[in-house]
């Protein structure tokens, strides 16, 4: 899979050299390219932003700079990529969206800064490729770079061959394998630590009992912290969802 990230702070993406994503890149499973938006800026000051029409605080990233960058990056491969644009005004990132992106051959992530990007950039891009906005959550970051890191990591671990054990992604919180619920708590050795014991059922060899215990804890935890996920499960599978 190929992922291009366009940003005015390429250094922000340096963590993608490390850990799981770094390993996937070196193994050739992930072709990740980070581009400095200023390469496409013109003029002595290489400005990428300007004041918004209609007034208001802050600056907007300009259409000509982003247009030139996206033209060049999206013409550098086969077919059209899917363009992802992090913004607090987008629909939220979910594991479902991550899973859908993980089967795409090519993603381009456009990181905005300041008050965002001139709206015509996305309108124009959508003439040639699928475009999706995405928000990390109901809070405002200083730019899209952190969201790009999140998207690249979440997508990469679903790309075949990136995770050592693909079964671990199937049992993640929010994954289909757990019914879209939160994971049960997990324990490893030692069996007793600071007078706290690993639950008895996990120490026996009864796989059915372990599975039931995990499902019950998963339901309990989800009801306590994310009741909205239980509602979504019932909406998808009906009232028998918990049988
Ligand atoms: N850029 C600024 N805030 C953001 C958010 N919450 N999610 C994604 N991109 C952003």
TrEMBL record:
It holds the Pfam family tRNA_m1G_MT. It catalyses: guanosine(37) in tRNA + S-adenosyl-L-methionine = N(1)-methylguanosine(37) in tRNA + S-adenosyl-L-homocysteine + H(+). Its EC number is 2.1.1.228. HAMAP family: TrmD (MF_00605). Belongs to the RNA methyltransferase TrmD family. The lineage of its organism: Bacteria, Bacillati, Actinomycetota, Actinomycetes, Pseudonocardiales. This is tRNA (guanine-N(1)-)-methyltransferase. One of its GO terms (molecular function) is tRNA (guanine(37)-N1)-methyltransferase activity. One of its GO terms (biological process) is tRNA N1-guanine methylation.
